[in-house]
Design a protein that fits this description.
Keywords: Cytoplasm, Exonuclease, Hydrolase, Nuclease
Main location: cytoplasm
Structural class: mainly alpha
Function: Bidirectionally degrades single-stranded DNA into large acid-insoluble oligonucleotides, which are then degraded further into small acid-soluble oligonucleotides.
Number of helices: 2
EC number: 3.1.11.6
InterPro entries: Exonuc_VII_S (IPR003761), Exonuc_VII_ssu_sf (IPR037004)
Helix content: 55-70%
Mean pLDDT: 85
Shape: elongated
Amino acid sequence: MKNKNLAYEDAISKLESILEELEEDGCTLDESIDKFKKGIELYNYCNNLLYKAEGEVKILLEDKEGNMLDIEFPMEG
């Protein structure tokens, strides 16, 4: 997979571009299918990055007995 060194934010940006292109009327069926495949690949890549990040956060939030710490994070805004 050529996306493996892509930052999450860059992958999301590429995925958004593909979605915008698919929403336009100028794509042929073959182009649409190719873009759809690339979009699915990027989606899976981003999902995998989020899954790994979630695992890291859970590890960081465990106490010495393996229990999850109950931490409230402030909301933005």
